[in-house]
Amino acid sequence: MRTPIVAGNWKMNKTVEEARSLVFSMSLGLREIKGVEKVLCPPFPALLAVSALLQGTDIGLGAQNLHWEEKGAFTGEVAPAMVAEFCQYVIIGHSERRAYFGETDQTVNQKVHAALAHDLTPIVCVGETVKEYESGRTGEIVRRQISLGLAGVDPAKAAGLVVAYEPIWAIGTGKASSGENANAVLADYIRPVLAELFGVETAQAIRIQYGGSVTAANAEEFFSQPDIDGALVGGASLKKDEFVAIARAASKS
Ligand code: 13P
């Protein structure tokens, strides 16, 4: 049995003060939900403040990115040890980073290795564009993203990975995939390629989230699918009632 994991990717939203009040508003509701790993991923400047608020709770903290080098002349970047000071998780290879900031399967791979070396749980994002989807290339794209992005990962550590399948056409569009379609991508492509890399048993242990326009209204449709182990939530994670309801839906799955 895989424990579902619901993570809120706040993207570039919330100042420190705004982050504090959002966490205040949702913390009690989230803490009441058991049997689900709950994770908040605010922007870097809010990590310190949010980590203080989450002390002593069962809510985890994640960053939205990291650099793979340990330290040095990399203006504007954040090193793995700096992330690990506050966080247990880190989102890697989000499609917005791939599209706007030049991330590639190779940099994703470097970041995954850096995260694991610092005992961070990587949430590795994969997903196809609308063009790729329409031309039937989803399987090819996610297989490539997984096999290159996770290349060389120690199979002994791989079970701790989290993969997020986020079809780009579903992100921020309000047009979520259907539960069935998303589950088919996980079952037909993602878990099989994980099995090729790490063996069947480990592939069965790796949590795979769905992301892309997840809301309180459609969460159950995803969580009732056998291969979907939670969600990576964007817009709805900024709304207390929505995010708590999504986490609650995962606890019933
Ligand atoms: P939305 O939930 O806003 O579609 O964003 C999904 C996402 O990109 C989470 O990483």
In short:
The protein is an alpha/beta fold. The chain contains 12 helices and 8 strands.
Strand segment count: 8
Report the total helices.
12
Low-confidence stretches: none
Radius of gyration: 17 Å
Biggest sheet character:
8 strands, parallel, barrel
* Spatial separation of the terminal alpha carbons: 11 Å
Instruction: List the strand order in the largest sheet.
Output: 1-2-3-4-5-6-7-8
Look at the helices and sheets and give the structural class: alpha/beta
Mean pLDDT over the full residue set? 98
The general outline is globular
Bound molecules: 1,3-dihydroxyacetonephosphate
Order of helices and strands: EHEHEHEHHEHHHEHHEHEH
Portion of residues within helices: 40-55%
Strand fraction: 15-25%
Account of the 3D structure:
The chain is α/β, with parallel strands linked by helices. The chain is 44% helix and 15% strand. It contains 12 helices and 8 strands. It has helices spanning 16-31, 47-54, 80-84, 95-100, 105-117, 130-134, 138-149, 155-158, 179-198, 200-205, 219-223, 240-251, and strands at residues 5-9, 37-41, 59-63, 89-92, 121-126, 162-165, 207-211, 230-233. Strands 1-2-3-4-5-6-7-8 form an 8-stranded parallel barrel, surrounded by 6 helices. β7 (207-211), α11 and β8 form a beta-alpha-beta unit. The radius of gyration is 17 Å and the shape is globular. It binds 1,3-dihydroxyacetonephosphate.
